[in-house]
Design goal:
130 residues; mainly beta; Rieske Iron-sulfur Protein; four-stranded antiparallel β-sheet; 1 helix; binds FE2/S2 (inorganic) cluster
Length: 130
Amino acid sequence: MSMNRRQFIVLSAATLAAGCAANQPVHLQPAAIDAGPASDFAADGVYSKFSKQGFFVIRKGTSLTALSSICTHRGCKVNVEADNSFYCPCHGSSFDPAGRVTYGPAIYALPVLPTSVDSRGHLIIRATVI
Ligand code: FES
């Protein structure tokens, strides 16, 4: 599935909060994003290749997960820091390597997105798009 930045929205507390605050319906659809061969993420660490599309890929031992890169405060993109924590440049929220808030104003953790590896060995990210 190919999509541009604008089309990709990860279902997050920020997205829902924005829709609720504006009293506007938010039309979301599930999608599967092919992040390529899981073997591309073999070494432990945070991979930011897809951060502009809305998620980080995180390898920790045998675990391969995806974490939203959209701040739960007001939806800015967060950056990964040298210690694999995350920082939002908009209002200064910080998140630990698991996505838990360590400093506000954000109060919700970065959502962990469901992942799987398909029959070709590709990492599939389950997200939500508008
Ligand atoms: S949008 Fe991230 S701290 Fe406000």
